[in-house]
Amino acid sequence: MRTLTPLASNLVDFDLRQMDSNLPRNDGNESSSPTASSSEGSDVFILDPSELFRPEHKAPEKYRIYTTNQDDYIQKRVFDTYKAMHTNQTMNFALDRLKAWTRFDKAEMGIMEALEKLNSLVDESDPDVDLPNIVHAFQTAERIRRSHPKLDWFHLTGLIHDLGKLMAMYGEPQWAVVGDTFPLGCAFAPSIVYREETFSDNPDLKDQRYNTNYGIYEPNCGLKKVVMSWGHDEYMYQVLINHPKMSLPQQALYIIRFHSFYPWHTGGDYFHLCSAQDLDMLPWIREFNRFDLYSKSPDVPDVDELIPYYQKLVDKYLPGPVKCPIAMIHQSAIVNEIFKVQDESDFKQKVLNNPNLVILDFYATWCGPCKIMTPRLESMVGSKSTPNAKIDLAKVDVDELDTVAGEYEVSSIPSIFAIRNGKIVDQFVGMRDDDQLDSFIEKALATK
Ligand SMILES: [Fe+2]
Ligand SMILES: [Fe+2]
Fold first, then answer.
1. In the listed set 327, 359, 389, which residue is the last one of a domain according to the structure?
2. How far is the centre of ligand 1, averaged over its atoms, from the C-alpha of 351 (Å)?
3. Which of the given ranges, 72-81, 362-371, 378-387, 403-412, has the highest pLDDT on average?
4. How far is the CA of 252 from the centre of ligand 2 (A)?
5. β-pair type (108-109, 326-327)
6. CB 119 within 8 A of CB 132
7. Binding residue per annotation — 148?
8. Is 272 annotated as a binding residue?
9. 64 is in an annotated binding site
10. Structural domains in the chain (count)
11. Which of 198-212, 263-277, 374-388 has the lowest mean pLDDT?
């Protein structure tokens, strides 16, 4: 793995983390959630297929050709990321993440601070291709500035367009951070990458409402009404529109929100959902994509020298006292745990002797409803846990720990228990929707 380019120390008063090659990788496995696997204080290895397959790396006829070649490490990572994404990105998931990530009640961060932090995301791709994220940000911005010197909002857009990737540092799995995005709530279009190979396990495929061309949407309703798969585009868009003094123009918001929406801006699908405004904005997104390149190039920008110019733009379009209120869920403020119970002594230690409220999830790998309930529980626990009322989620595979399952008289799964001080305070069997889970946890939290 390559090392990071050191940052200018005078960016902001920010304590840069030390590199540590022994840190856990965030591979987008199913146990990841915004609060499950903290990466705060460590590097996160990330691979953004949308960036990796930019046209600068391919001859035109090979541009964005994805293969299922399992021998090629990068191609395998790309395929696995999309497989996880296309299995788990559902309407419920995206709405849930939107709710969880836009509470904006955990921390504040300035733009420059966020840019520095972004450098702890280490691009895990072809070493001939990758760049430190801050270099990519400034390089994109400077390319735009050269071609559009008067459009200062466009320069700032280039600088901040990938800031939403910071979600990966707070435990969000990579399939919910990077890669191409696509609409939910209607049929998945043919131009989505790996459309044929990766969607078969997506629960939305079985929902009649979501499987026509229009799905739940009206013709030409406008992309603003469309729920997109959750990723860094949508998150950064939400951060911006929730900023009380943000004054970036529509073009900037479209670029931020849809630059990874390749099935639309490059694939030519989903035009039946577009409003006139979407079509007006499309050329801006395509113009932006000309500069959002991701190749090593000799013109590495001098970040130190550029800071004052871009800080002025931040002050102009995203003003705020000292730190702009870019709010993010702050891992250290929550500190809850989501874990799989390994054995009986693990159960005793982490469940029965746990001072926090523990939600106990009995599941099996072959159980379809469990595959829906477990991510739902992870999200709910993540979003409801606070420093004063911490909640942990303990997952028990009934096939591996049948003694524990027997003690709790589990005869059907999923079986969910709320445990406080080693004692059962509530329980249910089977599926529950988000509202029901919410009240289940609220009720359990009220117990002492
Ligand atoms: Fe991006
Ligand atoms: Fe980018």
1. 327
2. 40
3. 403-412
4. 14
5. antiparallel
6. yes
7. no
8. no
9. yes
10. 2
11. 374-388
For a pLDDT cut of 90, what percent of the chain falls above it? 48
> Mean pLDDT over all residues of the chain?
79
Ligand 1 centre distance from Cα of residue 331 (Å): 23
Per residue in 198-207, pLDDT (tens digit) is 999 999 999 9
What residues flank ion ligand 2 with Cβ within 5 A? 162, 292
Q: How far is the CA of 136 from the centre of ligand 2 (A)?
A: 7
Question: In angstroms, what is the span from residue 326 Cα to ligand 1's centroid?
Answer: 18
Q: Which domain holds residue 244?
A: 44-327
User: What is the spatial distance between Cα 24 and Cα 9, in angstroms, rounded to a whole number?
Assistant: 26
Residue 285 sits in the same domain as residue 365: no
For residue 433, being part of any structural domain is answered with yes
Distance 159 CA to ligand 1 centre (A): 11
Q: Is residue 25 part of a domain?
A: no
User: Which ligand has its closest atom nearest to the C-alpha of 260?
Assistant: 1
User: In 3D, which of 100, 160, 78, 173 has the Cα closest to residue 330?
Assistant: 100
Inside any domain, residue 16: no
Distance CA 231, CA 162 (A): 10
Same domain as 438, residue 344: yes
**pLDDT interval class at 29 (50, 70, 90):** very low
243 is in an annotated binding site: no
Answer yes or no: do 55 and 132 share one domain.
yes
| pTM of the predicted structure, to 2 decimals | 0.65
For residues 404 and 284, membership in a common domain is answered with: no
pLDDT at 300 over 60: yes
Residue 232 annotated as part of some ligand binding site: yes
For tokens 């991510």, the residue is 375
Single residue among 298, 327, 356 that ends a domain in this structure: 327
Query: Beta strands of 192-337 (E only): which ranges?
Result: 227-228, 326-327
Alpha-carbon Rg for the chain in angstroms = 22
Specify whether 228 is located in the same domain as 377: no
Residues whose CB falls within 8 Å of the CB of residue 407, separated by 6 or more in sequence, listed in order: none
Are both 357 and 322 inside the same structural domain? Answer: no
